[in-house]
Write a structure and sequence with these properties.
six-stranded parallel sheet; 44% helix; binds nicotinamide-adenine-dinucleotide
Length: 432
Amino acid sequence: MKLCMIGTGYVGLVSGVCFSDIGNTVYCVDKDKRKIESLNKGNVPIYEPGLEEILKRNHKKKRLFFTTDLKDAVTKSDIIFICVGTPTNKNSNSANLKFVYSVAENLKRIIKKYKIIITKSTVPVTTGDKIEKILIKLKKKKLIDVVSNPEFLREGEAIRDFIYPDRVIIGTDSKKADKILKSLYMPIIKKTSRYFKTSRRGAEMIKYASNAFLATKISFINELANLSEKTKVDIKDISFGMGLDQRIGDRFLRAGPAYGGSCFPKDTKALIDTANKFKTNLSIIKTVVNSNNKRKILLTKKIEKILNKRLKNKIITFLGVTFKPNTDDMREASSIPMINYLNKKGCKIRYYDPSGEKKEFKNLKNVNFCRNVSSSCFKSDLIILHTEWNEFKLLNFKKLVKKRNFSIYDLRNLYSPSKMRKNKLNYFGVGR
Ligand SMILES: NC(=O)c1ccc[n+]([C@@H]2O[C@H](COP(=O)([O-])OP(=O)(O)OC[C@H]3O[C@@H](n4cnc5c(N)ncnc54)[C@H](O)[C@@H]3O)[C@@H](O)[C@H]2O)c1
């Protein structure tokens, strides 16, 4: 099939590359000229393991194209995926849909032949109705079907998630669109995943409900970690014991810093905003958002406590700053408020992240990127294990730091507290 991905970010690029790998011809469009130029040279603008190899292979086979020419790409395609960003609006919690609607306005002028228009972007329930309204003339001429097909891939594991999804959700009442999309997804759903057709609004809601539920699970275990610390119980045992119950499951039940990333913070807020518009009180999700915001402060206070409130000129090393491993995405990473706060308090921050230096810290005096673990840890007063990249899992801290007194704050509970104590290290975990 011939597909057009509008928006070549984490979602559009990964989906486009993977769709081409299963034999489709894919036109990836972005308004960012530099991104497209770089992609045409085979350079991947994001950190996503395995993506470059598949991209180069399909680009070479001439079934994967990168362009800024929306009209040409849409005209050549049967299915149009809208994959643009839906960030939080500046002065409210609502999702900013200007990129989505601007694409719809453009499509209105381009489409002359039947196409399926899909929102892969995460959009609030009833957005599909509004897109259809923009395209009403085309709809009346039966030239379009507007479908919701939310994306569930996780950064860092995006290729695996795309090829082996737990489910493919299609929201449409069009039999024609359903039939075409089933055959598009057949090579994927043949494996293990389920193809679930529902209403367009239903599909839109499933995406938000899923993200809000996962955010709730994280906040739940994070709050229990606070209680575990006070009662001298190991939260890892609680997660494990709970997770053995198949109704609960052990995933997303690991205590750590506040959840971050490009999805959970914005989607929980947008869901509350949508509910408010429909005069519904989502009190649980409101509490989750609140709890997560508080957690950012709580963990910073703990850092102050570890350093006996003497922060000035203390050398603090962050190992990992991204919101999770195997991605370069810094959106809503909990390291940002932490580093900003500690920097203001006069700490000297060093950080090392395998995905490279971050623009978020470039203009901060006394916040420096180091090229490896050893240069970042050398003579540090406190090491904060912020992101669980593999290379942080087996470190010999004494050899790295080469200093008598230093502390380790393991926000991911990667190390055993008893072993650390045996080695006479001043070690703090989360909820243990
Ligand atoms: N990142 C994730 O892990 C993830 C997972 C599931 C769903 N989503 C959802 O998918 C959507 C996209 O997320 P993302 O992380 O890929 O965003 P992103 O910011 O990485 O990429 C969006 C891209 O769209 C481009 N764009 C914006 N307007 C355009 C236009 N009119 N024409 C062409 N290109 C345009 C931008 O230049 C950018 O490259 C969001 O709604 C997000 O919530 C993201």
